Amino acid sequence: MLERHEIEAFLAVAEELHFRRATERLGLAQGRVSQIVGRLERRLGVALFARTSRRVTLTPAGQRLYDGLAPAHQEIQEAVAQALATGKGITGTLRVGFSSAWAGDMVLRTAEAFRRTHLGCLVEIQEIPLYDTFGPLRAGVVDLQLTEFPVEEPDLVAGSVIFSETRAMMVPADHPFARRESVSVEDLARAPLIGVTGASPPYWREYIWPSKTPQGKPIPRGPTFVYWLEVPPLVASGRGISVASLRAARYHGRPGLTYVPFCDAPSMDYGLIWRRDGFTSRVQAFTDTLCRIRAGRP
């Protein structure tokens, strides 16, 4: 019979294939996982891992044990989570918003894991328009939102940064900047900048689409947009340039566009926000699930 700590230590090493990372993942003292696995191997009389100075791999016996233990361990974890969710009243509907495609990917992954452990709670997901980034949350259309920071609203709470993206300049493919490896924030003063219009706070718009460079040079204004999908064709047609996440090239790339990273701009930070009076057990459970997935602990 295997003890719980032996199962968890074995599974952590089998998934990380690295004793130090497995130790950090379990929050144990340095060397503790190696001791547990070593005792387990001696008790079973078989080697579960092949160790060299450079790598750790599963032996055939270790792989067979992992294939048998991992699904059962997952089922136990989900059963416990479901029991806790029932006891805490995590039922009903949770509405989660996102403001970009890459934030949407994170929300969808989290929702899939959340549904497995909170069977009594329905998750609804929707995109939040940039022209009114806090409006749906305030109106109760969504309960929780993964969005661009900064957030400095007295009625809203911002959690910690979940992930950060490199900031880039979106330019026409024939623009002189397109031939560079990187650009400077000061270069924004040399071309009209396409920005968002609408009800989003001025400080939020200024952080993403600034009106001046760090040296105080005015940035000429180009056309404005309401929905982000308007931006790529505006840039490709030469109407102006835009600021975007570098990752946007994977979602909004098209002929006639180039994304050039900034060498001196702050990152684009994303995090969860919720109403100050709306931190329910559902919101907390979804937040915990997202943080575990982001940390590599699904």
How would you sum up this structure, described in words?
The protein folds into three domains: 4-87, Winged helix-like DNA-binding domain superfamily/Winged helix DNA-binding domain (Arc Repressor Mutant, subunit A, Orthogonal Bundle), CATH 1.10.10.10; 89-164 and 270-294, 3-Layer(aba) Sandwich (D-Maltodextrin-Binding Protein, domain 2), CATH 3.40.190.10; 167-266, Periplasmic binding protein-like II (D-Maltodextrin-Binding Protein, domain 2), CATH 3.40.190. The mean pLDDT is 91. The strands form four sheets. Strands 4-3-5-12-6 form a five-stranded mixed β-sheet, covered by helices on one side. It has helices spanning 4-16, 19-26, 32-44, 60-88, 101-117, 135-138, 202-208, 231-236, 248-252, 281-294, and strands at 49-51, 56-58, 92-98, 121-127, 144-148, 156-165, 167-172, 193-196, 221-225, 242-245, 257-261, 268-275. Helix content is 39%, strand content 22%. The protein has 298 residues and is α/β, with parallel strands linked by helices. The two termini are 26 Å apart. It has ten helices and twelve strands.
